[in-house]
Specification:
There is one protein chain. By secondary structure, the chain is an alpha/beta fold. The chain has a single domain (2-203), classed as Class I glutamine amidotransferase (GATase) domain (Rossmann fold). Helix content is 32%, strand content 18%. The chain has seven helices and nine strands; from the N terminus they run βαβαβαβααβαβαβββ.
Length: 205
């Protein structure tokens, strides 16, 4: 697994190691961006993934049956869970039933790349994101539990360089939730590489 904050430099090496031949496509999960299609960061993120030089299949899980998701993931070289609204993304995973499908494929070896919201939902609980994203984006959510693929909740943009996430907001997030949740603040030029039981922060310029 590779969990990104913003910059995706580490993704190329990750894909080169996990799927050197690049035979299968990257399945791009876009649910976090569904209500943000015109935001500049959405186009920038799609362009970044396109630059990996792999075929990309974009999917909105909210509108896709779990069996179809399973078929897509079975033929994929990686799944890329895009940034945007953490709570909209988690709601889409839950109400579609694709959460269990995704977790099953990743635990059986499918490489997972998450960025921002896609990194947060990989953890045990998304509550620490509630100061950075609006929980009202996921009105149907009955639980804040994440996918549980890692045992920490990533706090992206921890350098406070992005205008929506200034340093005081990052610090308030850490102060509010740091005593209750295992948090991993991640700068925008960093990523978390997970290999089995090993987790380490690496450069992602």
């Amino acid at each position: 697994m590779l969990l990104l904050s913003l910059r995706a430099g580490a993704a190329r090496a990750f894909l080169g190691e996990t799927d050197p031949a690049g035979d299968g496509p990257i399945v791009y999960v876009a649910d976090a961006q569904a209500a943000l299609a015109d935001a500049p960061f959405v186009a920038a993120e799609r362009a970044s993934v396109a630059s990996f030089g792999r075929a990309v299949i974009e999917v909105t899980l909210r509108d896709t049956a779990p069996a179809d998701v399973a078929e897509l993931l079975t033929g994929a070289s990686a799944v890329y869970v895009a940034g945007g609204s953490t709570f909209a993304l988690l709601e889409a995973l839950r109400i579609s039933g694709s959460d269990a499908v995704l977790v099953d494929h990743v635990r059986r070896g499918l490489p997972y790349i998450g960025l921002s919201a896609g990194s947060i939902v990989a953890g045990p609980d998304v509550t620490p994101a509630s100061l950075m994203d609006d929980p009202a984006d996921g009105p149907a959510l009955e639980s804040s539990a994440g996918l549980g693929l890692v045992d920490v909740t990533v706090i992206p943009h921890a350098d406070g360089a992005l205008p929506p996430y200034p340093p005081d907001l990052i610090q308030r997030t850490i102060d509010t939730f740091g005593s209750t949740f295992a948090l991993l603040p991640l700068r925008d030029d960093q990523a978390v590489l997970v290999d089995g039981e090993t987790m380490r922060v690496i450069d992602s310029r």
